[in-house]
Predict the structure of tRNA-specific adenosine deaminase.
Amino acid sequence: MSRWPIPDPMQRALALAQEAADAGEVPIGAVVVRDGAIVGEGRNAPRAAHDPTAHAEIAAIRAAASALGDERLAGCELWVTLEPCAMCAGAIVHARIARLYYAAPDPKGGAVEHGARVFDHPQSLHRPEVYSGMGEAEAANLLRAFFRERR
Amino acid sequence: MSRWPIPDPMQRALALAQEAADAGEVPIGAVVVRDGAIVGEGRNAPRAAHDPTAHAEIAAIRAAASALGDERLAGCELWVTLEPCAMCAGAIVHARIARLYYAAPDPKGGAVEHGARVFDHPQSLHRPEVYSGMGEAEAANLLRAFFRERR
């Protein structure tokens, strides 16, 4: 049996999640892609940075917007290892991300298919296309291993 | 007739909103207060900063967390001139802000009493006390004047 290969951007997001774990942060990674090339990336860093907003998605979006010199990332994709929370889903709206790919769902903290369902309200100024599941087991395993060690 | 005085933190948030307008940004300002003293402040800056996450609340929370050296702002208040959006409401949750004061409601983009109602889901890891209305007319007038000039 051969396993369906995980797309390159999600492989990079998973590597960034591992970097976060190695630094003692919850292992979540994200990249922003435009025309097939990574234009911004990030990983969780709130503890070391003393910054409650330092989620992987926020870091990747800020890096991409800075690199492209535009507060809007029209036509860009965001690849992230976990379903975004309300804060990050809101940032995805503001950045006008065209397509969101996330690996694992997050019934506890996610706000795309759970909880606040940020994109599903008439007030949402923008709705990305959303795809999930690619790399789900790998992303979930990273999180499980991280929290197991800390218990 | 004497008008009920606007509390000092909201007066500062309104002044920051005016600064944003003067810089060509949507006029919204915010301050974080601990034990009666401002420990972080911010105003809207997404256009100039090329940063879709550069909302007043995010800037104020990041500044306060950096100043206090802690990703959590337990016991702190956030004062902001407009009802927070989903991104900022999510950041308020992550920062564990104890009390949220906002001046004007935002039926179009707000996510506290409108839309995603971020604090109202069982998944919300934290719920601040919420108060609104102090300085409402002043905050709304700043926004109206800003958008009137741009039409």
Summary: Residues 31 and 148 of chain B are 26 Å apart (CA to CA).
